Amino acid sequence: QVQLVESGGGLVQAGGSLRLSCAASGSINSRYAMGWYRQAPGKQRELVASITSGGGKDYADSVKGRFTISRDNAKNTVYLQMNSLKPEDTAVYYCNARYIALRLYDYWGQGTQVTVSS
Q: Which long-range contacts (CB under 8 A, 24 or more apart) does 96-105 make?
C-alpha cells in the first residue's frame, strides 16, 4: 500500500506563493506518475500538474507559467511550487500517485486547503 500526505497549504494574498509537498510512503517506487489535482466547492476535480517517471511534465492551461511540479525520488516526495496565485486557485489540492503494471495502482492523499484572498 501507498500513503500520501500533503502539506504546505494555507491562506495567502493574491500574487503570493506557496509550495505544496506530498510525502509518499509504503510500496512506492519511481515508476509512479505523480500528479496534483484540485477541487473547489461545487466543481469537478481537475488535474493541475503531473510528472511522469521519466520527468515529463504537463500543466493545466490555467496554471502554465505560474506553477511548477517536481519530484525527489530519494525522498519519495513531489512538490508543487505555486507562484502568482489568484483567487481562482482557491481549492483543496490533492496529491495522486498512479502506476499501471498488471493492474492500476491509484492512490490519493487527504488534501490540503489553499485559499487565495483578493
A: 96/4, 96/34, 96/35, 96/36, 96/37, 97/2, 97/4, 97/24, 97/28, 97/32, 97/33, 97/34, 98/32, 98/33, 98/34, 98/35, 99/29, 99/31, 99/32, 99/33, 105/2, 105/32
| Separation CA 86–CA 73 (nearest Å) | 30
User: Would you tell me how many other CB atoms lie within 10 Å of the CB of residue 68?
Assistant: 16
Q: Compute the half-sphere exposure of residue 65: CA atoms within 13 Å on the CB side of its CA.
A: 3
User: Considering all CA atoms of the chain, what is the largest pairwise distance in Å, rounded to the nearest integer?
Assistant: 47
Q: pLDDT averaged over the chain?
A: 96
Band of pLDDT at residue 89, cut at 50, 70 and 90: very high
d(CA 40, CA 77): 24
